[in-house]
Design brief:
It is a single chain. By secondary structure, this protein is mainly β. Among the domains are: 237-413; 425-542, no CATH class. It is 0% helix and 51% strand. It is built from no helices and 48 strands. The strands form three sheets. The protein has a 42-stranded mixed sheet that branches. A hairpin with a 5-residue loop joins strand 36 and strand 37 (403-406). The N and C termini lie far apart (93 Å).
Length: 542
């Protein structure tokens, strides 16, 4: 190990007459630095040092008192600490790399192309902010890199030159601040596992590509256009998001025992816009989405999106204080389950809104599922329909083995509120146990789907109708083990039928042929409500 000074008559890094082992004014050493040697540029060094022909290497790099330019036509790799003078300039098309645990003091010098690591786990401590053009994770294999302290300000691209997977963790805040950034996670391996705070504050466009895994940190969008619609974002652990103006293609909230915590919590500091929201339950537990904001599933100026449960384990839940809203001006979206076994339909413990000009399918996706998928809503939430076409469908097998379709079941816990349900033809609405259930109007079926409102136990479930309206029972509605009540004297309930079966001893059914019969289980609970059974010729026979 030796110390090499760039001489006052030095001409280039790879010229062995350009270096001295005594001082910048000393005699030539007749050699160039190796990876075990320290390199010093001082006030006596020549003010220009091109690196060309061969790559430069050294153990440490120090230009504390140098006013000059390092031109990187080929690369320089440092295996230890780096200290730059504020009067030092680095230019060129090749990279400056630190490939071992070290610290860097850049004194506001911008490194046009900075590479972290070459394949060995390492930690880089930033003594002050580091400004770079391109930021690259180097090396191959599954590598763990750490960045500690201050800010890494990137004006160019973020990229991965790894053949497998790169882990980037620490405390440094990475800021994308350029006019055109590409965040390229690589096309091989599992992408970048990003454990650092990431802020987007550009005057141009940031484009994300390939698979981005964001873990236990904060994603903030302050300014600039972000193109993330060809990218899959996977959030693990505790993630905070403040990025309303980013339209994500796919966001995965994923349970994974490789991370702590192993169940994700997404905290929203603003609304979130996603094309597809995948909830991936690799084991039983609850994924949480918190914050009094909305996850818009779809593009509010484009197509509706999808909410899909994947690899769902029994007892799986998504919960929190946020709202999920299906949105969009067209297209087709899904609320369903994807691949993987599930012992019971996953439960949604969030407010749900359907507000779209597109078509939302609420369906079981495959015949291979062990249990039919259906929306399973927890208590104390509101499920609100505003607009859009909603098709509920479950796929079953007939006795002959031919698949057939029927309306999906909506399973609802106690104290839930449903708004606008007469726009959705559910196969069944099942209330858990007994208690109070609030809705502004009764659901209606269709010519192929009879909506059956039923309590899951023998006890009556009280359905309280709210609002100032005249409510009608009609269009293929069947009610079992439920008590109907009205909330005020301004509500009126009218049962309207034409040549339909009014239910025998199990409730009210429309859509079956046969003589009218007296309804048995419609029990008006409000003294304010006027309840009657009126033949209405305006309602066509079903």
């Amino acid at each position: 190990m030796a110390t090499y000074y760039f001489r006052n008559v030095g001409t280039a890094w790879n010229d062995n007459t350009s270096w001295s082992t005594t001082s910048s004014t000393g005699a030539s050493a007749g050699a160039i630095p190796t990876a075990a040697d320290d390199v010093i540029f001082d006030s006596g060094s020549a003010n220009s040092c091109p690196v060309s022909t061969t790559d430069g290497v050294c153990l440490t790099f120090n230009s504390t008192s140098w006013t000059g330019t390092l031109t990187l036509d080929t690369s320089v790799t440092v295996s230890g600490n780096v200290t730059l003078s504020s009067n030092t300039t680095i230019t060129g098309s090749s990279f400056f790399r630190i490939n071992a645990t070290a610290s860097i003091t850049s004194n506001s010098v911008t490194i046009p192309y900075f590479v972290l690591g070459s394949g060995t786990a390492m930690t880089l401590t930033l003594s002050g902010d580091l400004n770079v053009g391109i930021f690259e994770l180097g090396g191959s294999g599954v590598i763990n890199y750490n960045l500690l302290g201050n800010n890494l300000n990137v004006t160019g691209d973020v990229q991965r030159n790894l053949s497998s997977q790169g882990f980037l963790s620490g405390t440094t805040v990475v800021n994308l601040i350029g006019t055109s950034n590409v965040f390229d996670c690589g096309t091989t391996g599992a992408g970048i596992l990003w454990y650092l705070p990431l802020t987007i504050n550009t005057s141009g466009t940031v484009t994300f590509s390939d698979n981005f895994l964001f873990i236990n940190n904060r994603l903030t969008h302050s300014a600039g256009t972000v193109n993330a619609f060809s990218t899959s974002f996977s959030f693990f652990g505790n993630v905070t998001a403040n990025c309303e103006n980013i339209l994500f293609n796919t966001v995965n909230l994923t349970m994974n025992n490789s991370f702590t915590p192993n169940v994700p919590t997404l905290t929203l500091l603003n609304n979130l816009n996603v094309g597809t929201l995948n909830l991936i339950h690799n084991f039983t537990g609850a994924i949480t989405i918190n914050g009094l904001f909305t996850v818009f599933i779809g593009n509010r100026s484009g197509n509706i999106g999808s909410l899909i449960f994947l690899n769902t384990a029994g007892g799986s839940t998504v919960l929190g204080t946020s709202t999920l809203e299906f949105t969009g001006i067209g297209g087709v979206g899904y609320w369903t389950a994807g691949n993987g076994p599930f012992a019971a339909s996953p439960r949604v413990d969030l407010n749900i809104t359907i507000n779209t000009s597109g078509t939302l399918y609420i369906i079981e996706k495959t015949l291979s599922s062990t249990v039919r998928f259906f929306p399973n809503l927890a208590g104390g939430r509101t499920f609100r329909y505003t607009k859009g076409t909603v098709i509920t469908r479950n796929i079953t097998s007939s006795n002959a083995g031919t698949p057939r379709y029927q309306g999906s079941q909506l399973s609802v816990a106690t104290t839930h509120t449903l708004i606008g349900m007469n726009n959705i033809a559910w196969g069944r609405i099942v209330f858990a146990g007994s208690g109070t259930f609030t809705m502004n109007e009764l659901p209606q079926g269709s010519s192929t789907v009879i909506t059956n409102m039923i309590s899951s136990t023998a006890a009556n479930y009280t359905i309280t109708l709210t609002g100032n309206n005249r409510e009608r029972f009609y269009n293929f509605l069947k009610i079992q083990r439920c008590t109907i009540a009205v909330a005020s004297r301004r509500n009126t309930i009218v049962v309207t039928y034409r040549e339909g079966n009014l239910g025998g001893n199990i409730g009210i059914i429309f859509g079956n042929s046969g003589a009218n019969s007296t309804p048995k289980n419609l029990i008006p609970q409000s003294v304010y409500g006027i309840v009657g059974f009126l033949a209405d010729p305006a309602i066509s026979s079903r």
